[in-house]
Design brief:
alpha+beta; OB fold (Dihydrolipoamide Acetyltransferase, E2P); 6 strands; 43% helix
Length: 190
């Protein structure tokens, strides 16, 4: 006849099953917290660590004509002397790239810069799906308009601080709601 299975159950597998049972019991509480935390920490990491305001001496310089100016990012198309065209934008926090409103010093009135023969100091955002050339200083020689690095760094800091504040508020709300849900589930599943 057959032998009885006298092997001890795999302790690692038992622990995984135990964790999975807890997750299934409280998944409605755990998932929003994990997702929101990951999302906002990624945004803050990309803005503050990976793509902060660069040091002034590390900026690249180009000369060209602004051939398109609009209020939505990328705000500008700059045509270089060799005919190449680049899309450029004012610097903003990572969460706000590709959004529908401008965040630069002219807040939607970028058309003032149309036709500028400009010297632009810029950098490229790293680790983004598309290229984002951020303008950190602009000197429009023929229209005598200058946007200083100090002004743009200050605006970038404001958008970064706004991102951190919004993330803190949203996460606090989600944590509180999830904790309440956790207590409710715990009471009703006990």
């Amino acid at each position: 006849m057959g032998e009885l299975n006298t092997k001890q159950p795999n302790k690692g597998l038992s622990k995984i099953r135990e964790i999975w049972a807890i997750y299934k019991k409280y998944e409605i509480s755990i998932f929003p917290v994990a997702f929101a935390t990951s999302f906002f920490l990624w945004q803050i990491f990309m803005t503050a660590i990976v793509n902060p305001a660069p040091k002034y001496e590390n900026l690249k310089v180009l000369h060209g004509e602004i051939t398109r100016a609009r209020s939505a990012p990328p705000e500008f198309i700059v045509q270089l002397p060799d005919g190449k065209k680049l899309e450029m934008e004012w610097p903003v926090a990572y969460l706000l790239i590709d959004k529908s409103t401008s965040h630069g010093p002219y807040y939607g009135d970028n058309k003032k810069l149309l036709g500028c023969q400009a010297e632009i100091k810029y950098d490229s955002m790293r680790f983004t799906f598309t290229e984002h050339l951020r303008i950190w200083e602009l000197n429009c020689m023929n229209k005598k308009i200058q946007v200083s690095n100090k002004e743009l760094v200050k605006g970038f800091a404001i958008s970064s601080d706004g991102l951190k504040f919004a993330a803190t508020c949203v996460l606090a709300f989600i944590y509180i709601c999830s904790f309440i849900r956790f207590l409710y589930d715990r009471k009703n599943h006990s």
